[in-house]
Amino acid sequence: MDQQQQEEEAPQYQNDETQQMQQQEPQQSYLEVAFKQTNIQVIVSDPIVRDGGMSKFTVYNIKGEDQNGKFDVYRRFSDFVELRELLLKQWPGCYIPPIPEKQIAGGNDQDVVESRKRLLQTFLVVISYLPHIFYSDEFNNIFLRQIDVAKSFVNYKVATTQEIIDKFGTAFPALDVRDQTNSDYMLLITTFQGQLKKSQNFLKSYIEQAQQLSAAKKSLNEQKLILYQVLLPTYERLNQNEYVGGIENQLVLTNSQNQFPAIAEQLRDEFKKNNPLDNLLDLFKFEFKDADAIQGALNVRDQLIQKRAKLETQLREDQYELAKIASGKQTITTITNSVFNKGKDAAQLKVETKIQEGQLEIDRTGKLLNIVTAILAQQEIRFYKKSRIYHFNKIMAMIKEQETQCSEPEFKLFQSIYDACSALLEQ
Fold it and tell me: Are 374 and 177 in contact (CB under 8 A)?
């Protein structure tokens, strides 16, 4: 089957301008199921530091279940980096959620590992709401299930323009493809880019403030533990003990019959496990990186415009060379052919073939440009906005939950003190 025939049999998109008003929302879009039950479970857990000989590295346990069954693998942070780079190549113009920044050093530091774990969890959860990405060969078959992912990623065949067009036809069958200069699409895209730039400007300051708040919260919790486990018991032992004549059951904090020490230890464990403001910091960090991610998808459109312009320039140069050959003038192609004893007809055929191939690639690039524009306008920008609302609400709920978990043992601690003191006052 030749290439032209393949293109004729490729999946067809809707492109009738009369459907513009009729089809405001894409049919069977993943937006209709996004952030609802996806029957996908994916968890990042149990970071382990392994010895790689010359250096140590951390692996993260990725486990869960999808429609293809269960998966349980260990992945390095570098595997996530290579995965995302491959997805960007294979799905140009599609939104791919961000991953944490690379670290020049300190990748095995506990705070770095825990921060990465939380943000990588967010990355995988967002991917799970993008079925065309989640069930792609790159993600589902290789990343979630193969052992040597690094080798598979390196050897993975980069898709051609036509293969990408065909793949998008399958992933987005109801896409309303119009000319990339369509005014509705351009207004939506340019307006969104303006909003995006504005949000990135203040997110930087939000990240700095959240870092300070998170550190202050950690310091406050440490000071609270010193107060509960050291200062107050020491005060009672050195001062109150004297006033009750050394009778232990007249004391509260240092009375072995009370549960104060055990409750204080529970509070220590809760403080160590949860700092709710870390989630607030994660929110702002992810928002900032996510803005870069969607901007990267928008940039693909500009890159396709530039690619098509270069191809058109090359086509004009080839057409000019063909005209010179036809008129009997010497060209680089005819000179090269004379060296290898090839005649004028061979030189002309070579340039004609090059022109034909160039025109086909221009047509394919133009078609892909229209498709990517439609994907951005109909799918990715809407998904991005919806995901930001969802992510914000989820983070707020997590902060509330963790604050409650931290406050419960602290309330229990003060309740035990109150109960003990009340009992002593009634004696």
Answer: yes
Q: Determine if the pTM surpasses 0.90.
A: no
Q: Tell me which residue of 333, 328, 340, 304 sits closest to 317, measured CA to CA.
A: 333
**pLDDT < 50 positions in the chain:** 1-11, 14-34, 339-341
Contacts 24+ apart (CB under 8 A), 196-201: 196/291, 196/294, 196/295, 199/287, 199/291, 200/288, 200/291, 200/292
- Cα separation of 330 and 89, whole Å? 41
β partners of residue 176 = 14
Given a contact cutoff of 8 angstroms between Cβ atoms, the answer to whether 74 and 80 are in contact is no
Tens digits of residue pLDDT in 67-101: 999 999 999 999 999 999 999 999 999 999 999 98
